[in-house]
């Protein structure tokens, strides 16, 4: 390796590693193009079952068979499912997050992008995408791509369990009317960067898909859509089940 070559910045991974090793005040700063910067305490990624929102607990109860936990973070969902006797593979694009999960006892861990072709070597009964997990697809185009890709990952009778949010409230004026450019990009396509201390990660897209978008894209891709719950923050849990085998 040359002196000018370095590993990609991994602020999420460094924050999780620091917290795991005892720095309990470790906290990320989240920057976006739609809201003011917000703190994200690393502790939130280590929450126990009863610290999780109700929608997450409901999703865990709906998991079955072999589970692929996408964007698994510090592994709190994977560890809970393991404790229930399920076979879980947890993936995260952050190498630091993958290391934390291994150290915490998640049995199958890998550092992958959700579109990584290596994932198609196995089949899963449940694809789990929590903490606004549909956002991992990045954009509406990414959502369509993922729904095709997911068919190559799912075993017969398999399901996707995912949460997403409608963030149209961010565009309300003082009278409650929505103000955004109908000819511009979809309002739920957000750009983020994450900072930990002086380390800044690369900019990345994140999708907040409202329920009608999820239903339209999933039905177009040949999935049955079942909305399982919604909370007061306009976040919802959805189950997507392929209706028939299609070419990936």
Uncertain regions: pLDDT < 50 for 5+ in a row? 1-5
> Could you say how many structural domains there are in total?
1
| Named CATH topology | Rossmann fold
Number of helices: 6
- How far apart are the termini? 38 Å
Give the CATH architecture: 3-Layer(aba) Sandwich
Main beta-sheet strand count, sense and barrel state = 7 strands, mixed
Radius of gyration: 18 Å
Which CATH top level class fits? Alpha Beta
Q: What is the helical fraction, as a range of percent? A: 10-25%
Oligomer: single chain
What is the mean predicted local confidence, pLDDT? 91
Structural class by sheet pairing and helices: alpha/beta
Approximately what portion of the residues adopt beta-strand conformation?
25-35%
Based on Cα principal axes, name the global outline: globular
CATH level-4 homologous superfamily: Vaccinia Virus protein VP39
Strand order of the largest sheet: 5-4-3-6-7-12-11
User: Strand-and-helix sequence, N→C?
Assistant: HEEHEHEHEEHEEEEHEE
Number of strands: 12
GO biological process, one term: methylation
InterPro entries: Methyltransf_25, SAM-dependent_MTases_sf
Pfam family, one: Methyltransf_25
Domain Methyltransferase: 67-158
Jot down its keywords:
alpha/beta, Rossmann fold, seven-stranded mixed sheet, five-stranded antiparallel sheet, 6 helices, globular, disordered N terminus
